[in-house]
Every structure is written in C-alpha cells, then in structure tokens.
Write a structure and sequence with these properties.
Spore Coat Polysaccharide Biosynthesis Protein SpsA, Chain A; 2 domains; 9-stranded mixed beta sheet; 296 residues; alpha/beta
Length: 296
C-alpha cells in the first residue's frame, strides 16, 4: 500500500541561517514521502533560493512581501499536492520522527482530522531551555471535540498535521491578521470541522528570540477575539453553529477579553464593547471584571 503524500509548507523571511536548520529538520524526517514547499515572503537577495536549489525535491517560490505568515501559507496551500498538510516557520525545528508519529495517529484514527503535540523551547543558538509550551494540565482539554475549549484560547501548539480535506473546509489563513494570533484563529476555525488528536510528545523545537516576541505582536494579539467573532458570525449564518451556540461562544470571548485588561486596559475595553455592547449587564462578566481590576 502506497504511503500518503504529506505537504510541508515552510514560510521564511530574511532568516537564511535559521531556514537551513528548519529545512534540514524536514529533509531528515524518518517519513520520506514529502512534498516540500518553501514560500519566501519577499526576502532580500537570493540566499534562500540558492539554499533551496541544492535540493531538487524542494519547491521554492518567492512572493512580494506581505508582512506576515498568512499569505505565504496560503500560497503554499494553493500548490500543495499532499493528502496531509503541515506548516513550519523558518526559525523552528522538527524532531526527526514528527511526521511519522502524527501520520500514524491519523491513519489509525480516521475520525480525527488533525493531530497535534506540545513544543520544546530553544534559544537563538539552539540551546535547550528545558522549558515546554502547549502541554495541557488535562489531556482531554486538547483531545477530541474541543471547539468550546479552544475559543479565545491557545490550544493547538504550532505545526499540527492536518488532513487536506479539512484544510479545504476551513479555507485560507486570514490575511487581515499580522503575525499575532493568526494561527490560533485558524485552528479555532478548524475545530468546528473535525476532532483533534493530542499526542503528548514535544515534537517541535520552538525558538525564542527577539523577532518573534515583539511588542507590536503582543498588542495586535488583543484583536484576536474580534476576528474570532467574525468567523463565528459567518458560521452561525451558514448554519454550522446554532444561535444559542453562537451566544455561548461570544460569552467565552468576552471573558477572555476581560482577562486581557492586564495587558492593555483601554484597548481591551474598546474590543470588549465590540464583542458585546451589553457585556456589563451580565453578572458573570461583571464579577470577572471586578476580579481582574483588583488583581491589576
């Protein structure tokens, strides 16, 4: 039986030294039936092209700079050929058996459309920081039908493996968002179309460095709940969720936004009013609001 083709979409911008390590982590995967696509978001010079040209089976494309990862990912999706799709940013690294493990899970569990895991943190020099991100306190919080748990929360660690048929249902990444919560919003959407299979292993090394932890990203992340409301409204209009479910999800977004007052009070308050102009008339919201104010 022929092994399924897996498309790997690597997005990059002006980080040739990191791209080489990310690309090698894909090339060295124990699972070999890969469709590797590198999408360059308008990097200066031709270093990335020269690097990718060394590998005949790597498809390199360069687009005009878009300022974020959404458009490069979407361009990769458009030309992908695999039955499964995985994404990787140029500054992160996969463990050698990541695709093999996640693919085995999905092939053995056809009712699940996505498999994900948690990540190990490394610094700019590849040093293991002995810290992890994305591992839940309770496994059930990240496994199964988890759309209610995901809304307004960071639930899927970076770089899950997803069936292409699910990607087609979800659509493209939201190009109106910059690199601040765009992946959270996307996998939030995906949770309405399939169950998620959580694998309790650190299968990606997530790099911590200055350029992926900027103040602008932290501020823009505050807008995530507005984008979540957009797609929830669309799903309600399309009949994917009911009117009652819609209001339950919005209430979750409201509570999540109240918690963000610690980051930026005024901006959070403006966004909160856009989510629900009558939030202050709901007792649970008021109690949470008072609690957060006291904690500030």
């Amino acid at each position: 039986m022929q092994k399924p083709l897996v498309s790997v979409i690597i997005t990059t911008y002006n980080r040739n030294n990191y791209l080489k390590k990310a690309l090698e982590s894909v090339l060295n995967q124990s699972y070999k039936n890969l469709d590797i696509i590198v999408v360059d978001d308008g990097s200066f010079g031709d270093e990335n092209q020269n690097l990718c040209s060394k590998y005949s089976f790597v498809n390199y494309i360069k687009i005009e700079n878009s300022g974020g990862p959404c458009k490069p990912r979407n361009e990769g999706i458009k030309i992908s050929k695999g039955a499964y799709i995985a994404f990787l940013d140029d500054d992160d690294i996969w463990e050698y058996n990541k695709i093999e493990i996640l693919l085995d899970v999905l092939e053995s569990n056809p009712s699940f459309g996505l498999a994900h895991h948690y990540c190990k943190l490394i610094d700019e020099n590849d040093k293991d920081l002995e810290k992890y991100v994305g591992r839940p306190g309770k496994l059930e919080d990240k496994h199964g039908n988890i759309s209610m748990k995901m809304i307004g929360n960071y639930t899927v660690s970076d770089y899950p493996l997803c069936r292409t048929e699910i990607i087609k249902k979800v659509g493209f990444f939201n190009e109106k968002m910059i690199a601040a919560g765009e992946d959270v919003e996307y996998w939030n959407r995906a949770s309405f179309f399939t169950k998620f299979y959580y694998v309790d292993l650190p299968l990606t090394k997530y790099r911590i460095h200055f350029s992926n932890n900027s103040e602008i990203n932290r501020q823009e992340y505050l807008k995530l709940n507005i984008f979540n409301k957009y797609f929830l409204t669309e799903y309600k209009n399309r009949g994917i969720i009911s009117e009652t479910e819609f209001h339950i999800y919005i209430q979750k977004l409201v509570h999540n936004q109240i918690k963000m007052f610690k980051t930026n009070f005024l901006k959070s308050l403006i966004i909160l009013n856009k989510l629900d102009s009558f939030w202050f008339m709901k007792w649970k919201s008021i109690k949470l609001f008072i609690f957060i104010l006291i904690k500030r």
